[in-house]
């Protein structure tokens, strides 16, 4: 039986405080149906953890969308924090989540420190 509380999406972001206000503006504008939020250093870097959270969000709140957001100058990536590396990790995370949850829509984004979001 489905529980009565549902939301539209899960949003996976880095814990980095510098991104917070731009993300809030962006989610207010983009996601109208509510969302679960996971803030973890490196965003999708710890994929097994992210996968668990997506699964819980799917089971508990019947989400239909997954937003994966990595960002510029991420401390969890250190010197590896290049656009190419983030693109690679985001695409891989998308592929793995899609294999497990084929019905979910997955949106991957790269956030610049100036607050811009780039579709990956
Ligand atoms: Zn970060």
TrEMBL record:
Listed InterPro entries: Carbonic_anhydrase_sf, Pro_CA_2
Give the GO molecular function terms: carbonate dehydratase activity; zinc ion binding
Gene3D superfamilies per record: Carbonic anhydrase
Q: Kindly give the SUPFAM superfamilies that the UniProt entry links to this protein.
A: beta-carbonic anhydrase, cab (SSF53056)
The protein here is known as Carbonic anhydrase
- Origin organism is Candidatus Gottesmanbacteria bacterium RBG_16_37_8
Starting at the broadest rank, the lineage of the source organism is: Bacteria, Candidatus Gottesmaniibacteriota
């Amino acid at each position: 039986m489905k529980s009565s509380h549902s939301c539209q999406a899960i949003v996976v972001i880095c814990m980095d405080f510098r991104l917070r206000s731009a993300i809030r503006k962006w989610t207010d504008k983009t996601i109208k149906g509510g969302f679960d939020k996971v803030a973890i250093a490196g965003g999708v870097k710890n994929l097994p953890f992210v996968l668990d959270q997506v699964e819980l969000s799917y089971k508990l709140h019947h989400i239909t969308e997954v937003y994966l957001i990595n960002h510029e100058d991420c401390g969890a990536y250190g010197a590896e924090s290049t656009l190419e590396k983030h693109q690679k990790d985001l695409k891989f995370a998308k592929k793995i989540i899609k294999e497990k949850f084929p019905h979910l829509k997955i949106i991957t984004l790269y956030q610049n420190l100036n607050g811009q979001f780039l579709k990956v």
